[in-house]
Structures are given as structure tokens and as C-alpha cells.
Amino acid sequence: MVYNEKRDKLLFCKRIKEPYKGLFNFVGGKINPEEDGFAAAYRELYEETGISEKEIELNHMMDFTYYNQDCYVEVYVGYLRREVELKVELHPLYWLELNEDFFNTSKFAGEGNIGHMVEQVVQYGSGVSGERDSDRASINKDNSLTTKSLPSEDMNQLGTLDKNSLSIGVDGCKGGWIVASIDHGTLKIEKKTSIEEIVTYYDGFDYFLIDMVIGLPSGKEQIRPDMYARQIIKERTSTIFPVPCRQAVYAESIAEAYEENVRVLGKKFTPLTVGILPKMQELDTFLQEHEEYKNVILESHPEVCFARLNGKTVLSKKSEYEGLVERVQILQKYLPRLNANDLMQMAKQNRCNVDDIVDAICLAITANLAKQGLCEVIPEEPMIDETGLKMQMVIGKV
């Protein structure tokens, strides 16, 4: 998708052969084996139009997979930096006004896909922020992702990142944990298999926040921070799961866990809680066996942190594309080079949900703010469980 320098026209080719003969389509071509998508996009654009990398910056906006056609499509978008003399390779080229009905399948190829892509740019922007390609977020061979923050003078009034610290944010995922680290201003995202692997790899961190229960109640009189968190995000209280008692977490079966929770706390817990019982046990066991990390690895909650970074509760669901984009835009206030589509691609490669990655980044940013004294603990005077763990959450200040 190529916009002119005034951003009021889109570049199309008119196909002279099938498929879609006689219809307008975006320029494009095939990605060669072992070729990077960005490299292919710039190469095909130059071959089809004569537009070089010096004259446009492309952003990876979205992907389509057509399983019944065994076809995978990557979509890139950009704005020309200056007027360019087009060079036709095969299909004639045309600049079309933005008031066209791009969903008109008698004029445009793709069964409505062109209209959908244009609408995405209208609603959410192109993702092009003016950075050099060498500074964009990049997915590495080990499926980790790195991106640099902007210099502090380019950040907005919400705050700047501490460029002299190592801050860690962790969220559980299928098969392990997603770790977002902000190391001296550079974000890196990786998947690790265990808590022990995380602390070994990131030895020397300044602040470590995790979206997992720390401090397990052993009786009704012990109050966790969950009730305080629910008061902050009253519209999204369902995202804060009921925490089981210590006896239930270490039960030998789910049936026994339910029985123990009813016996100790007088209530059951939800099926969603059942899914994270192994993660609760892993983290608690690690902390019991490594006293030096007790009350050093700290609990937080992404939705509460997003509310604090945003100034109000984020009502959209991060499992949906719109919710993902909204949260990435909040995080871009601190890491402007984040891109929703890069995160989606990385989630596929790491076989995790993209919201696991987004949550980990949110906690890493909050950890960085905590290092600067810009966070608070709820409740202000937390209770302590029977093993010495504080039952608290670290969140951003109002």
C-alpha cells in the first residue's frame, strides 16, 4: 500500500492478466525462499514501480493466511517522502483518490480485502513513525524481539524510561513464561521455560514484576490485594481471578483442590484459576527454595497497570485486534517503535498468545517506573502469608 507524499492518493496497478484481469490491485509479488518480508516488499516495489527504499518507509501492517489456497500474504504500507516518477514493469500504474469505494469488487481485486486494508489504515494508522529501518523492532533468529526506546527528550509527558537499569516483566504462557526486559532503554522479549531460567539469564535485574500470584492465604483472615485491584478497574473485575489457598495450590488433584479451598476459605475458585494452578505452584516453590528472591520478585497485574498508564480502565479486550492495538498505543508512549503486527508475528513463532507478550511489556514498563519511584503498592500495608511473602501488587501511581 503506497500513499503519495500528500497522503491523499493510493497507488494501484491495473492487472492485464489473471487473476483479477482488468481490476485494480496493490502492487506486489512473491517472497523468495529464505528472503525477509521487508526485503521482499522493498524489492518488489522497486521492480514494479521504480520506487526505492530511499523514497519510502514501509511498515509491516498485517498478514493473511488462505489455508484452502495454501497462500500466505504479508501487507506493507508506507508514504512517499517526495514525488517520484513511476516506472511500469508490466501492469499499468494509477494514483486513485481516497474517496473511492475500495470494497467495490467489480473494480478492485481481492473480494473486499483492499477495502479492509484501507479501513485499517484509516482507523489505526499505518504504523510508520519516521524511524530509520535500522532502529525498527526486529524479530531475531531465536524468536526474541528487540526494539529501542526513543531518546528521553522525545518521550511525552507520561514519563520517561530509566536508561540505566534492567527491568523485567513476566507473564505466563503455554509451555513457559514470556519475559520482557528493558535493559538500558532497549526492550527484548523472549520465552523461557522456568522461573529459575529467567533469574539465571537476567541476573542483576533492578526490578522484577510478574503477573502471577505471590503470597498464598492459609485462612479467611488473610487479605490479598485482589480486592483493592478490583476497585481500580471496576469495569474489568473479571480479569482478576479468585486466588486459591495454599492448601489448594499444593493439592494432588483438582477435586482435592476444590475441597481444600472450600474448607479453608469457604468458597470454590473458577475454572480459569484451575488453568494457572501449576504456574502458581512453580513460582511459590521457587520462592520457598530461594529465600533471596522472596519479596524481590513482585506480583503485579497488567490490566491494573494499563489503567494507570492510560489514566482510566481499558475497556477493550486484548484478545481482539482492536484491544491489542489500543494497548500497543498505550505502550508506545514509552516504547514508540512497538508494532502490533510484529508482536503478532512473534506470538506465532513462540506459540503463545499475543496478549501474553503485551502484558509482559506492560509489566516491564511498570517495573522501570517502579525503579524510578513512580509506582505504589496495594494495599499500602500488605499482609504476609505464613511463609513470609507479602501479599501485595506493584502498580503505577495515579
UniProtKB/TrEMBL annotation:
Segments for region (Disordered): 128-153
Bias type Polar residues, positions: 140-153
GO molecular function: hydrolase activity
Domain Nudix hydrolase: 1-118
Biased composition (Basic and acidic residues): 130-139
Origin: domain of life: Bacteria
InterPro entries to which the protein is assigned, alphabetical: DUF429, NUDIX_hydrolase-like_dom_sf, NUDIX_hydrolase_CS, NUDIX_hydrolase_dom
Cited SUPFAM superfamilies: Nudix (SSF55811)
Any Pfam family: DUF429
Keywords assigned: Hydrolase
The name this protein goes by in its record: 8-oxo-dGTP diphosphatase
